[in-house]
Specification:
Shape of chain A: globular
Distance between the termini of chain B: 57 Å
Radius of gyration of chain A: 18 Å
Largest sheet of chain B: 5 strands, mixed
Number of strands of chain B: 7
Order of helices and strands of chain B: HEEHEEEEHE
CATH topology of chain B: Beta Polymerase, domain 2
CATH class of chain B: Alpha Beta
CATH architecture of chain B: 2-Layer Sandwich
Order of helices and strands of chain A: EEHEHEHEHEHH
Oligomer: heterodimer
Strand content of chain A: 5-15%
Largest interface: A-B, 12 and 15 residues
Strand order of the largest sheet of chain A: 3-4-5-6
Strand content of chain B: 25-35%
CATH superfamily of chain B: NADH:ubiquinone oxidoreductase Nqo5 subunit
Largest sheet of chain A: 4 strands, parallel
Distance between the termini of chain A: 56 Å
Chain lengths: ~180, ~170
């Protein structure tokens, strides 16, 4: 038997009042905690940023530390759409369809220059940033970004998830945002 | 006997007569410029003539020369005679007003996608093609992007200084 590890960090409890046998906090904080530490990403990898993401998933960088060991290759179960790589205009509707198929709450991260702005592909065939078809929460710059940067972007998403009001998705502002992209 | 440019050129000249406009040889590869109305006849002849046997269509593409009045567009065929290990280029000029040229699909099935691609990028109409529609670009595209009058840069780009990028 190996030694027991004592230096493993786990997610701390949210703010609240505790005493003998009870702990009281607000529902939104509990939900935020649960959501932020069990994000199931859908990797939409089309090129070299996808290779960096593979390194991010693998043991050296280990995305599983953030509660995301379960990559969902079905949009139905995914919480986070990670678009990594050049999106050609022909691929644009596919990204949008994938986003529509995801259940609320859902987040989007654009990894790399191409997904964020079109990158070096300032040309007729390439979508100039995925924010032309879906709303984006976090942009990760780089061509391609290092796994550390992808993890940093992922942690930014966790911050957003933690601090998002649980009512946000039913607000008229949110509906309006989706309507801008033609999503009902 | 190895096939040489002289033999191929004389055969083409004999077959086409005045429809062979000119020829040149660059990088050791013969190129012939022929009338666009004889493209199918010529490729069929080169395919079936037992001493030539150009049975493989390596490539089919287009080109746009906006300053070449009367033949602004060009369709280029690359042929390979696998038996004789000899390669040949055939170019057909087309005027801007009439971009019709006979499809090669009946002879070379491999021409199907290449002709669709050439149509997609240059707007050249291959008459007799079974399914002439866009292949690489989005179906909604309303222009032919490889024509020189259209800018390479995407006009919807928002994060660059427009004046430096042809917008």
């Amino acid at each position: 038997m190996g030694e027991l590890k004592t230096n493993i960090k786990i997610v701390g409890e949210p703010e609240g009042i505790k005493g003998e046998g009870f702990f009281a906090t607000s529902l939104s904080k509990v939900i935020a905690l649960a959501r932020a530490n069990s994000i199931w990403p859908l990797p939409f990898a089309t090129s070299c940023c996808g290779i960096e993401f593979m390194a991010t998933m693998a043991s050296n960088y280990d995305l599983a530390r953030f509660g995301s060991e379960k990559l969902s290759f079905s949009p139905r179960q995914a919480d986070l759409l990670m678009v990594m790589g050049t999106i050609a205009k022909k691929m644009g509707p596919v990204v949008k369809q994938t986003y529509i198929q995801m259940a609320e709450p859902r987040w989007v991260i654009a990894v790399g220059a191409c997904a964020s702005s079109g990158g070096i592909f300032d040309t007729y065939s390439v979508l100039q940033g995925i924010d032309k078809v879906v709303p984006v929460d976090v942009y990760v710059p780089g061509c391609p970004p290092r796994p550390e940067q992808i993890l940093d972007g992922f942690m930014k998403i966790q911050d957003i998830v933690k601090n998002e009001s649980i009512r946000r998705r039913s607000l008229p502002e949110y509906k309006e945002l989706l309507n801008q992209y033609g999503i009902e | 006997m190895a096939l040489t440019s002289e033999i191929v050129l004389s055969k083409i000249k004999e077959f086409l007569g005045d429809d062979l406009f000119s020829s040149n040889e660059s990088f050791g590869m013969l190129a012939v410029i022929v009338s666009s109305s004889r493209n199918y006849d010529l490729l069929e002849y080169l395919y079936k003539e037992s001493s030539l046997e150009f049975t493989f269509l390596t490539d089919l593409t287009g080109a746009h020369y906006p300053d070449k009045k009367g033949s602004e567009f060009e369709v280029i065929y690359h042929l390979h005679s696998l038996v004789h290990n000899y390669r040949l280029r055939i170019k057909c000029g087309l005027p801007l007003e009439n971009l019709d040229i006979r499809s090669m699909v009946a002879l070379h099935s491999g021409a199907n996608f290449m002709e669709r691609e050439t149509y997609d990028f240059y707007g050249i109409i291959f008459t007799g093609h079974p399914n002439l529609k866009r292949i690489l670009n989005v179906d909604e595209m309303d222009y032919f992007p490889m024509r020189k009058e259209y800018p390479l840069e995407d006009q919807t780009r928002t994060d660059k200084e427009d004046k430096y990028f042809g917008r």
